Amino acid sequence: xxxxxxxxxxxxxxxxxxxxxxxxxxxxxxxxxxxxxxxxxxxxxxxxxxxxxxxxxxxxxxxxxxxxxxxxxxxxxxxxxxxxxxxxxxxxxxxxxxxxxxxxxxxxxxxxxxxxxxxxxxxxxxxxxxxxxxxxxxxxxxxxxxxxxxxxxxxxxxxxxxxxxxxxxxxxxxxxxxxxxx
Length: 182
Ligand SMILES: CC(C)(COP(=O)(O)OP(=O)(O)OC[C@H]1O[C@@H](n2cnc3c(N)ncnc32)[C@H](O)[C@@H]1OP(=O)(O)O)[C@@H](O)C(=O)NCCC(=O)NCCS
Prior knowledge:
The protein contains three helices and seven strands; from the N terminus they run ββαβββββαα. By secondary structure, the chain is an alpha+beta fold. A five-stranded antiparallel beta sheet has the order 2-4-5-6-3. Strands 1-7 form a two-stranded parallel ribbon.
């Protein structure tokens, strides 16, 4: 296994035509189908970088920015943005093209954390990243920032669980759209 690999070695694009069987009750493409494609493209990108089997550890965040219509061509572009020791953050940009008008819309961007798994079924070290462009450096730095923010959030979340105070939460809930029927 190489110690370091360029980002470009594992960048990939997956393109798929959206057929009627992928649609939901509203006639638009099911969000779950897009998610499944994102997981696939993240897997391929991570497996190429790490030369082996990977699993999805987490997804940050999936916002559906625009609906995808039946008949559109969806392209998912994936790139390793950051590597830790055994984990890789794969940035995915999804766009959808109307084949009549050729209008291309950005439908979502998301970050999948994939962990490389060795033959012993344990996380294994992945090659470092060779950053060859300003975009590579920006993506690596932004992923690092996001990771730090997430760690802060995890600590806050643990704190919220520890400081749960029924009476003060009952006061807060008075201003929310919920009814308490104990
Ligand atoms: C992901 C998983 C392998 C991590 O195992 P673990 O025993 O916690 O291993 P470690 O603590 O050594 O963590 C391994 C790496 O994963 C990262 N990681 C673990 N959980 C994570 C999470 N929720 N979000 C982001 N990164 C995570 C760790 O930061 C570490 O990264 P690093 O080596 O680059 O520093 C384990 O939680 C797992 O198997 N989860 C289920 C995955 C799954 O079923 N996915 C869906 C189907 S593919």
